[in-house]
Amino acid sequence: MLPFTYVHAEDDPSAPGSTETSDDAEQTETPAPVTPMRATPYPASERHQSLIEHMTLFQRAEEVITLIADGNGAADSFYGLFLRERSGNPQGGALILHDLGQHAHWPELVAPLREGLTESGWTTLAIELPSPPVDRLPVRQPQQEVPSSAETEDNDQADAPQSPSEESQEEPSNAPLDDREEQETNEVAGTTEETTGPSVEEQRQMYTGSMTARINSGLSYLASRGQLNNVIIAHGDAAVWAAGIVQTRQRETENANGMVLIMVDAREHPLSPLRLNQILDTLEIPVLDILTADARSTEWQDQQRLGAMKRKHRSGYQQIRLSSASADSVTVLRRIRGWLKTNAAGTELP
To answer: Do residues 235 and 291 touch, judged by C-beta distance below 8 A?
Structure first.
């Protein structure tokens, strides 16, 4: 007599209450992959907004002012940090331009200058500079679904040789092959045109217009507060834009009396319409060029700039290399104070 074997319902695939399903059922229940949305971050706006909140938190909100720049045919609102001189012996106004990726109270160079120069009689104004344009994010293509086994079988059957009667039932395409290829090409080209942004030249013009408009707005604000003897202090990539402003004012007014330029770790920006050496060749004002251990330019570029100024016999140009000091060191602040006292303090306009 053979022993009985008990089979539970959950172990029998053919049982009515079996929990196992077929491959087709699993494929039907699997949801289609969803393409995630791509979000564009705004680190520049968050950086500057955090600065304003920081000033408010430390009860220094009175230093924050709102400026308007008329650039690219539209009004541009931005902030500035204004401090009056505290020595009782006013010398003029200092417009401070931060490097790219920073803000108007950056702890490296910008904040020490805007606070320290007030002890020497200089009213300071540090302004927010626009962020350079960035390349647009590429369009993410949806992922292709992996065909199921059932779909694969259907495709195999469709690829099988057809009988003459079946071939006769297919309707041929009315458009010739060349026309269809041209249509597909136009559709792809149209999609590319929609996803592309302004050209490199348009981006350069917009960025240049916004940068120059903000610097001019800062100088106008200092003039409205009675500061006509001005110095522009530019850090990093902002140097080429500051030099361009001085060049324009020198050309329009036939002189640039009452204005000097200080550059710290100057570097040319690729969106600038002119090279820094070309602009400095035309300046007839005192220029201080400080190079620290944080400089991102090569020694060859710095030597080329110094040689270009010597060929033009620009006696007002001075290049100082501080290889052992960083941009936020006390040595840089002392150098700027001493140079301003010799070359800019007490200048009277005609």
So the answer is: no
Query: Tokens representing 157?
Result: 């059957």
Bridge partners, residue 93, by sequence: 123, 230
Query: CB neighbours of 116 closer than 8 A, spacing ≥ 6?
Result: 333, 337
pLDDT one-digit tens code per residue, 235-248: 999 999 999 999 99
Q: Residues for the chain: how many in total?
A: 350
User: What φ, ψ does residue 148 adopt, rounded to 5°?
Assistant: -75, 170
Calculate helix-pair angle for 200-224, 238-253, nearest 10 degrees. 70
Domains recognised in the chain with CATH numbers: 44-129+199-343 (3.40.50.1820)
Sign of the dihedral through C-alpha 342, 343, 346, 348: positive
Low-confidence ranges of the chain (pLDDT < 70): 1-45, 47, 71-74, 134-197, 254-257, 346-350
3-state helix, strand, coil in the chain (%, to 5): 40, 15, 40
Report how far apart, in Å, the C-alpha atoms of 154 and of each of 95, 150, 159, 174 are.
73, 6, 9, 26
Cα–Cα distance between 278 and 210 in angstroms, integer?
A: 21
Q: What are phi and psi of 87, to 5 degrees?
A: -100, -20
Instruction: Look up residue 260 and give its amino acid.
Output: V
161-188: buried (b, 16+ CB within 10 Å) or exposed (e) per residue?
eeeeeeeeeeeeeeeeeeeeeeeeeeee
The per-residue DSSP string of 98-140 comes to PPTT--TT-TTTHHHHHHHGGGGTEEEEEEPPPPPP-PPPPPP
Q: What is the pTM of this model?
A: 0.70
The phi, psi pair for 98, rounded to 5°, reads -80, 165
Q: Please say whether the beta carbons of 331 and 322 come within 8 A.
A: yes
